[in-house]
């Protein structure tokens, strides 16, 4: 076989080989991205189904504290976002004996 005939075949093998490797790298990158997206989706699903934190129980008035102090403390908890408006109203009703 003449030597000139082999060179185009070798050149084609080199080009085809690098294209194959590039395709494998691209496929691996796509798979990695798909795995990351699946992990993100799984974490978001877990967070969505997780039970919300239990609301803080309304503090019971201690024997020495006054009614005004307890109402003030409940108002501060509501303003901080610890208590909802409904929880604040229920705790206030319990304190006032309504």
Automatic annotation (TrEMBL):
One Pfam short name: SHOCT
Organism superkingdom: Bacteria
InterPro entries registered for this protein in UniProt: SHOCT, TAT_signal
Biased composition, class Low complexity, residue ranges: 26-63
Domain SHOCT positions: 69-96
Region (Disordered): 26-67
Protein name: SHOCT domain-containing protein
Organism for this UniProt entry: Streptomyces longisporus
């Amino acid at each position: 076989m003449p030597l000139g005939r082999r060179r185009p075949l070798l050149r084609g093998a080199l080009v085809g080989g690098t294209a194959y490797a590039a395709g494998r790298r691209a496929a691996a990158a796509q798979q990695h991205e798909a795995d990351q997206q699946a992990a993100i989706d799984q974490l978001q699903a877990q967070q969505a189904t997780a039970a919300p934190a239990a609301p803080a129980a309304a503090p019971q008035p201690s024997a020495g504290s006054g009614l005004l102090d307890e109402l003030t403390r409940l108002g501060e908890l509501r303003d901080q976002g610890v208590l909802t408006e409904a929880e604040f109203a229920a705790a206030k009703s319990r304190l006032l004996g309504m």
